[in-house]
């Protein structure tokens, strides 16, 4: 039986979304009713579509018996997480042919790495790259050649972008194919220790680079629980990955077999068969709420307080931060993966992984089982199984019934925290979010004077000059999507961590982002309304006392309301972050983007 709060909220979201969801599904069903779209093409159009194919494939695509898979890939060989995708298209094409179908590489999408651009001009493109990826996905699928789609992507904005793009072709059955995490390297806590020593000037660049290279050391996803691995969790808990396939390392026999099986599986679900499962129907209100539940239960990336909202709206579903907050009251924190623990995702997988997590949530009525998935069965119950190769064949067996390491995956009865790892923050400075799962309890409430900055480099310089050697709440303004594209602000993680370790009470308040790598320093981020819209952060002065309680979700500046409201909003002084590294190409994005709580959407408005 589903928990009464989850049941009530689900009904509210369904009712709230009735108009927009009905309109979306009508478009999906209209497209589905046209049959294989390539058969509506003129002869010249179709000939262009299969001109480069082998003779047998041309014959297959000219008819209406064999399905064609469109592959959309975020491959590039600079990003460790996406480098393994180089070998996936040949595996997919081979498997599709064996299963009686065809597969074509439909298009590539850009894939940038926040780990590389962090603190540099390219980071200002990061959030908007999600919308570019969504549009590039739509371009790749726009040729009316496909009966199904496969999405190859892992990191940050890439998976949400692929998912939004796929939902614009909601009549197509779609499966997501992970690449898997790199093997464990230097422990994440040791990496952070070296970073803080570097910030203090106690080690040099050579020692820092050595530590970083031992942490990020091979093909595969970074092993900490940031946005990339939160993406992978989200996609599996919504039923878009094959059961148990999310955290299998790249370049292994099991990873390759799962990739081939994904191609065979999606062919079963096309409109040409008897088990049609279009993604527009798969991603419904229950699947979206499952994604939020997974985020809270694992203490995942705060980026998903925007991405899940945007994905939902692409499917005609309306959710908001109050929904996250209500669920956080009933969803406990069930995993400890860095930065909210010492384990990495490989340890999480070894402890039972997604199968144990899903099974535990289902057993307590804290997850919707009755969703459409890409597994052999439609419901989520099968996702307690794990894939194995036995006698050369890929099979699924029942996974562990409970966690194999209670320090990594807990239970609802004995959670790591009673509420979810992401909290809504409210008060006279607006609305924002805070990732509390990695913050020790003694640091979750901070009351201190504000020191205001409009550029993170100025805050770092103040640290180096000793100006932050005190209790302080750093207020960093004009970092929202309309200001400069809302870059992540991890340049501040090490300096603020150093100050906290020295015994000072510190916190960060900003309309920018910190993402899944948010660490031990308390913060209130993604504040709305943002500074570029004259939000309350623009009226804060140096020395104002701010009270931040991330546990209760309350933040206020302790200034008389009449005085505070009478202050003039300070406006952004310059636009230097609008030029260089391609940022001038994104003027229309900054001008047209919605608020963080509305998903920071630029492309569409479902209301």
TrEMBL record:
Family named by the database record: Belongs to the IlvD/Edd family.
Domain of life according to the entry: Bacteria
Cofactor comment text: Binds 1 [4Fe-4S] cluster.
Catalytic activity, as annotated: 6-phospho-D-gluconate = 2-dehydro-3-deoxy-6-phospho-D-gluconate + H2O
Dihydroxy-acid/6-phosphogluconate dehydratase C-terminal domain: residues covered: 407-600
Function: Catalyzes the dehydration of 6-phospho-D-gluconate to 2-dehydro-3-deoxy-6-phospho-D-gluconate.
Cofactor(s) listed in the protein's UniProt record: [4Fe-4S] cluster
Gene behind the chain: edd
Pathway assignment: Carbohydrate metabolism; Entner-Doudoroff pathway
EC number: 4.2.1.12
Protein name, per record: Phosphogluconate dehydratase
Single GO MF annotation: 4 iron, 4 sulfur cluster binding
GO biological process: D-gluconate metabolic process; Entner-Doudoroff pathway through 6-phosphogluconate
UniProt keywords, alphabetically: 4Fe-4S, Carbohydrate metabolism, Gluconate utilization, Iron, Iron-sulfur, Lyase, Metal-binding
Organism of provenance: Methylophaga nitratireducenticrescens
Binding-site residues, [4Fe-4S] cluster: 155, 222
Domain Dihydroxy-acid/6-phosphogluconate dehydratase N-terminal: 66-376
GO cellular component terms given for this protein: cytosol
Broadest EC class assigned to this enzyme: lyase
């Amino acid at each position: 039986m589903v928990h009464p709060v989850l049941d009530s909220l689900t009904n509210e979201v369904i009712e709230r979304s009735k108009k927009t969801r009905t309109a979306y599904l009508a478009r999906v069903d209209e497209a589905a009713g046209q049959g294989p779209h390539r058969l509506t093409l003129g002869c010249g159009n179709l000939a262009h579509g299969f001109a480069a194919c082998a003779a047998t494939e041309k014959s297959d695509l000219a008819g209406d018996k064999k399905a064609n898979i469109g592959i959309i890939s975020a491959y590039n060989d600079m990003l460790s997480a996406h480098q393994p995708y180089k070998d996936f298209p040949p595996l997919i094409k081979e498997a599709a042919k064996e299963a009686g179908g065809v597969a074509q590489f439909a298009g590539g999408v850009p894939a940038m790495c926040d780990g590389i651009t962090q603190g540099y001009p390219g980071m200002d493109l990061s959030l908007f790259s999600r919308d570019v990826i969504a549009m590039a996905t739509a371009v790749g699928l726009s040729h009316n050649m496909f009966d199904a789609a496969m999405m190859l992507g892992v990191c940050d904005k890439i998976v949400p972008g692929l998912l939004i793009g796929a939902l614009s072709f909601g009549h197509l059955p779609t499966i997501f194919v992970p690449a898997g995490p790199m093997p464990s390297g230097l422990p994440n806590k040791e990496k952070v220790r070296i970073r803080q020593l570097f910030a203090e000037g106690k080690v040099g660049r050579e020692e820092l680079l050595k530590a970083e290279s031992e942490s990020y050391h091979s093909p595969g996803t970074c092993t900490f629980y940031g946005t990339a691995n939160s993406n992978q969790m989200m996609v599996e808990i919504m039923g878009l990955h094959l059961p148990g396939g999310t955290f299998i390392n790249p370049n292994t026999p099991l990873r390759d077999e799962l990739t081939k099986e994904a191609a065979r599986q999606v062919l079963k679900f096309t409109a040409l068969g008897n088990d049609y499962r279009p993604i527009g129907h798969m991603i419904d209100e229950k699947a979206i709420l499952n994604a939020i539940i997974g985020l809270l239960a694992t203490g995942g990336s705060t980026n998903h307080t925007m991405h899940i909202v945007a994905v939902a709206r692409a499917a005609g579903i309306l959710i908001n931060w109050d929904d996250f907050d209500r669920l956080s009251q009933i969803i406990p924190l069930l995993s400890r993966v860095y930065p909210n623990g010492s384990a990495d995702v490989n340890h999480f997988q070894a402890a039972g992984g997604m199968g144990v997590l899903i099974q535990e949530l289902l057993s307590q009525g804290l997850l919707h089982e009755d969703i459409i998935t890409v597994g052999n069965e439609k419901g989520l119950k099968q996702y307690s199984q794990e894939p194995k190769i036995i006698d050369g064949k890929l099979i699924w067996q029942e996974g562990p019934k409970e966690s194999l390491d209670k320090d990594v995956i807990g239970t609802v009865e004995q959670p790591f925290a009673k509420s979810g790892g992401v909290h809504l923050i409210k008060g006279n400075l607006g609305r924002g979010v805070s990732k509390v799962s990695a913050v020790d309890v003694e640091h979750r409430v901070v009351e201190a004077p504000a020191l205001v900055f409009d550029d993170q480099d100025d805050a770092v310089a103040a640290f180096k000059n000793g100006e932050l050697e005190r209790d302080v709440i750093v207020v960093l303004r004009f970092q929202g999507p309309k200001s400069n594209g809302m870059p992540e602000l991890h340049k501040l993680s090490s300096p603020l961590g150093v100050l906290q370790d020295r015994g000072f009470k510190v916190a960060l308040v900003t309309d920018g982002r910190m993402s899944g790598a948010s660490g031990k320093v308390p913060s209130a981020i993604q504040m709305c309304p943002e500074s570029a819209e004259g939000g309350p952060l623009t009226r804060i002065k140096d020395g104002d006392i701010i009270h931040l309680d991330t546990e209760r979700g309350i933040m206020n500046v302790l200034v008389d309301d009449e005085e505070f409201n009478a202050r003039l909003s300070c406006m952004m002084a310059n636009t230097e972050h609008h030029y260089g590294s391609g940022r001038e190409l994104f003027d229309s994005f900054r001008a047209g983007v919605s608020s963080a709580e509305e998903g920071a959407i630029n492309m569409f408005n479902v209301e």
